Each structure stands twice: as C-alpha cells, then as structure tokens.
Amino acid sequence: MNTSATQEQSQSEPIQAQTCIIIHPGSKNLRIGRASDVNPHTILHAIARPRRPKGPLHRDPVLIPTVVLSKENKLQVDETYQSMRGTLQSCLRSDGTPRPATSTQQVALANKQCTPIQGSVSKLQFVTKSDVEDYVIGDQVLYAHSDDQFNVHFPFRHGDLNIHSGVGGSLSSILADLETIWGHCITNLLEIPKTELKHYRAVLVIPDIYNRLFLKELVGLLLIQLGFGGCFLVQDHVAATFGAGLGAACVVDLGDQKTSVSCVEDALSQRATRIRLDYGGSDITQAFYYLLQRAGFPYKECQPQHPLDSALLTRIKEGYCHLNLDFCGLRDVNFVVERPGVATLRYHIKIGDELLLAPLGLFNTEVFALTGQDKRGQGQANASGDPEDPHDANYLRETSRRAHKEALENQSTSTASMDPIDNSTNAGGQGEEDLVVDSLAADAAPDDLPQQQLLYSLDQAILHSIERCSSDEMKRRMYSCILLVGGGAKFEGLSTWLHNRLLLQIPFQFRPEQTEIIVGPKEMDPSMVAWKGAAIMSCLESAQELWIRPTEWKKIGVRLLRERAPFYW
C-alpha cells in the first residue's frame, strides 16, 4: 500500500530538467543531452567494431555513394546544371544591378596554377585494433584504420533504422549498436553511471514518418536494456514547433539523407500531409564535389568514399555554399588536408557559382541522379498488425466494418417493417454490404501515400503537403508559416529563394497576407531546434501523462503506445 502511494506521489511530482535525457538520433549525427543543457552534445552517429579474423566486412559510408551514370542520365545532369547557370546569369542583385556569372572554364583557369602549401607532419593517429577492446564510437570512427578492417555501422539511414542483409544489418544487431552508442554517450559525455539511469527519464525524438515495429523495439531499448525510469516519444516535426514557439506551421526538415515535410497544428502532425524524400545534405555534398571536379579542383587525390575526405567536403560545403545572389564572382576558399602521419597540405583555391549550384539542387532534383534514382516521395505506411496488441488497426478496421454492417441491416429491417409492400429498400440494404466504407483503411491507404511516380523538389513537396490539409483555413495558416529545420537549412539565402519560388505557385484562394519562412528561430541552430523543443516539452505539466514506466511496459507492452503516444498510433 505504501509502495503504490509512493509511486503515485513520484508520478505527480514535476519533472526536473536535470534528470531528463533528450535523445535525437539522426542518419549522420546523434544529439543527446539533459533537458537543462543549453545545447546538446553532437557526435557522429556511428560505431566501428573490429572485424573478426576472416569474417565478413561491412563499412557504411559517411556520404551517400555516387552511382555510375548512363550517358543519357549524365547528359541530363549536365543540361540541368547548364540551365541553372543560365538562371543565375539572368538574376539581379538586391541593389537591382545585373549579377555577373562565372563559368566552369573561368574557375578551372584560376585554379590551374594552385599548388598546396606543405606544413608539418600531422599529429593525428589512426585507430587500430590494438587501440580498442570492443568498439569505436563517434568522430573517432573517421580514423578507424581501413587496413585493420573495422566494420563500420550507421544505425540510421535515410531517417530510419538501417536494416540490410550484410553483417550487423539485422534488427537485433542495430538495437545492440544503439544500446552501445547511447550508453557510451550517457556514461562518458553526460557522466551518468548506467546504474543510476533508473532515476532518469528519456525523451526520444522520432521521425515524423515512423515504423511501429521499430518504435516498439526502441521503447524496450530505453526502458529495459538501458534501464531508464520512464520515457516517451515525440515526432521531430512536433518537437520543432515547440522549439520555435509556434502553434501551427508547415515544418520542413532538411537532414543529411532525407528531406521531410508535414503540417503541424496544436502539437499534432497531420498524417495525410507527411512526405519523406530520400535526398538531403549528403546528396548536396556529392553534387558539390561533382561540380568541383569539372572546375579543376586541385586536390586530385580526394576520395569522397574515404571518411576523412567525406568530412572535409562536408566542411567546405557548410562553410562556403550559399544561395545569396549578392555574393558573385570568384571567391577565395581555404582548406587544410590533414591525414594521420602525413604532412598537412593547405589549399587556397577559387570557386565561383558552384557554391550556389550545389544547394540549388534542392529545387532541381534531377541532379541528385548522381547518388541514385530512387528518391521518390514516401508517406506514412498503413498500420500493420501486432500480436501483442489485440486492439491494433486490423481489429479496429474489422469491428468498424462489422458495426457499420449491423447498422445498415437494422436500418433495412426497420424500413421493411414500416413498408412491407416495397421490398426494394431491403434489397438495397443487402447490397450496401458491398459498399461499406472502411474509414480507417481510407484514411491510411491511398491518401497517405504521395504519388510514388513523382520526385518532388523542395518547393513542390511543401505545396503538395499543404494541399493535403483537411480545410481551406488550415491551408492558409500553413502557407503563412513555414519552418525550416535541420542541418541542410543553414545555407544563407535559402529562405529567400524558397519564398520567391513559393509565391509564384501558391493558389490565389489560399494566399495569406504574408508568407513567413522561419530559419533558426530565437537565434537557434536549425539542426538543434527539434532537440530543444523536446527538452521544453519534457518539462511541461501537460506532458506528465505521456510518460511510460518500465513496470507498465513489462505488464502492458505496446498497447501503452496506443494510449499515451502524442501522435496517431
């Protein structure tokens, strides 16, 4: 009796931000920290394990790899870039003067005489098998020596669990990797012993388009394997609106390997509006390298598949690429190539419109054929049955169909008794059985899946998402407030470029008085907005009913998610 009373009292107490851990896993980076922290710890979301002698080898790349293009596809990519150069040449600067464009030949000529400045020998060292007992985590994975044949795993790819047929690609292996990575970060970065986690609670930020089986396993990982005293899940788009302080917005998340769009109102992501596209910052980096090669990039030994060169190209892209039309002509770009045990090389090169053409791929997605053709829109999949949940979607669908059928039969019987001469109504009632509308299936089946044959550009994805809102008034609200989050939203001038593209396409009847595109609300890093929103949400009094505790999870299981998840299960 006293024990239950103590539990009820502890459940009603306000959550302390210091005892709440926010975990936001991504395809490339992991953001983790206490809810009371100003900013989370950000590390490479990867793990390297020494390969067993004569065992299979698997190395997930840091960048999405390029594919070999056919002549037709290569010609289409080059023609698209040529068209984009023509568009830039016809643009005006903010003061109304023509914008001078640069050509590939001009940039190549400027870099022809470039020679690197050699520095001292790097003090960095590769990580070898002898240096580790079991695993390497985070940024150290970049230095996992390839000759020692580490297996490198990224648990998330394209915003979902990285299930594949190779070694370490099973669900149980990925969950074991996540337990190791998250547990290592909690112990070493947050300095919380694993034995103390029963006194802490966790908030897991999940993708807006989710797999129910994976979520069930992740909750079990947090509560059972890691041993947290409680947890709840929140969709990244909903968390982003909390972080930005918005009640309603069309949220666009530009990640490393996926771009997702959905409309959020009153802390609910509208299911029919969710779209995920399998391109992001990694594709922009590969497109940037493609352009650099054509412009005489002097670092000829660059190999994008090498982890250190992948990180170098990403730094150059993040530091110099932009969409500001006032920046024109040849720009100075400096970078240092540093490899363990080798003298550093300092490059001073010139780059022109390639700095704009790379991020412009978001609006001309044909160029992303460089990293593969299959990047089409995806929506929320239909709910699959779960043997642990007797009231799953299949049960609700069957019972709703049966109840609808019984209602029709009762209606036809009463009509027949009132008018026994006319039996046509009764016959019609029997025929109605074939026309029963399955509301759940209709809600989830074709309407939740974007047109699979289309590869949306960023502006097209936003328009398509908002068009699937349930009312005209909601469409106007969404067009009036668009929130850009994620690491891919950091390009200077992106919001202005997107604003101009949308103004030309918003239907007249839905045009708001003002369309506001928000990037970095409250001077926040766009990649941390969702994490910050989850931290805010965890401390709200209204969120206390969302917490799931280990004893409840062991007893009730996945059914708790149907009752307590702050989204449609």
Automatic annotation (TrEMBL):
User: Where is the protein found, in the record's own terms?
Assistant: Nucleus
For this entry, the protein name equals Actin-related protein 8
Supply the SUPFAM superfamilies for this chain.
Actin-like ATPase domain (SSF53067)
Q: Name one GO cellular component term.
A: nucleus
One short Pfam name that applies is Actin
Family of the protein in this entry: Belongs to the actin family. ARP8 subfamily.
**Function comment:** Plays an important role in the functional organization of mitotic chromosomes. Exhibits low basal ATPase activity, and unable to polymerize.
Q: Where is the composition biased (Basic and acidic residues)?
A: 388-408
* Disordered: annotated segments: 374-431
The UniProt entry, under InterPro entries, shows: Actin (IPR004000), ATPase_NBD (IPR043129)
Report biased composition (Polar residues) as residue ranges. Answer: 409-427
Q: Does the keyword Nucleotide-binding apply?
A: yes
Q: Which stretch is the leader sequence?
A: none
A single GO BP annotation from the record?
A: DNA recombination
Q: Which organism is it from?
A: Daphnia magna
Which GO terms fall under molecular function for this chain's record?
Answer: ATP binding
Q: Could you tell me the keywords of this UniProt record?
A: ATP-binding, DNA damage, DNA recombination, DNA repair, Nucleotide-binding, Nucleus, Transcription, Transcription regulation
